[in-house]
Amino acid sequence: MNLQPERALVAQACRVAAARGLVDGILGHLSLRVDDDRLLIRCRSDSDTGVAFTRPEDIRLIDFHGSPGASGELDGYRLPNELPIHLETMRAAPQQRQAVAHLHPPDVVAADLAGITIRPIYGAYDIPGAWLARAGVPVYQRAVLIRTPELAKDMVAAMGSAPVVICRGHGITSAAGTVQQAVLQAISLNELARMSLRVHWTGATPAEIDDADWNDLPDLGSAFNVQSAWRHEVARLNEGQS
Ligand SMILES: [Zn+2]
């Protein structure tokens, strides 16, 4: 199974997440389900130089037991310790969760540790983010490395039907139908946390936007929210490399 476009996309999404400051160094990983039994996931190797420098060949095909999805797929590559995050998140909602991003965004971790709950404190500044916050962003309270199916199931239970969950003192898990959406909603969550921290630093406690405003915060559609937004992410990534 070649899956070259899919491997390139997951690798690109890793680089976008790193460029947006959602991961630092070598920690964090993305995955994409490709059929009933298999998924692509960002693996590690002896030539790995970190998430920001993820190459298509770092994205390997495995099955839901963590075994190679095809001959040779894990030769020279190691699975991330937190693989169960991806497997259990996908298993809990196979239709909706085709892609999973596990990231360590410092502003989200800091806001949660500061006792700040993610709430819709802005509207048109980022409409998808505002709706994400309105629905509520759950928190998994344990700061552990999620390296067993049991811990991953606990995290997934805390996540419920939400698209994202904050892992206290750790990071986030974001799940969606596409890799792009999984990363874009992580970017939105990071921005909510960053703005919340900024307002708190002034000494103010931000209020939620007025209930009357929601009628005029429309869904602008995936062509704008996902395709255009992703083109921008890729463009700024390429700009940074030149
Ligand atoms: Zn982690």
UniProtKB/TrEMBL annotation:
Source organism per UniProt: Mycobacterium asiaticum
Single GO MF descriptor: metal ion binding
A Pfam family matched in the record: Aldolase_II
Protein name from the UniProt record: 3,4-dihydroxyphthalate decarboxylase
Superkingdom of the source species: Bacteria
GO cellular component, one term: cytosol
Residues of the signal peptide: none
PANTHER family assigned: 3-OXO-TETRONATE 4-PHOSPHATE DECARBOXYLASE-RELATED, FUCULOSE PHOSPHATE ALDOLASE
Keywords: Lyase, Metal-binding
Domain (Class II aldolase/adducin N-terminal) ranges: 8-197
Keyword Metal-binding found: yes
Record GO biological process: pentose catabolic process
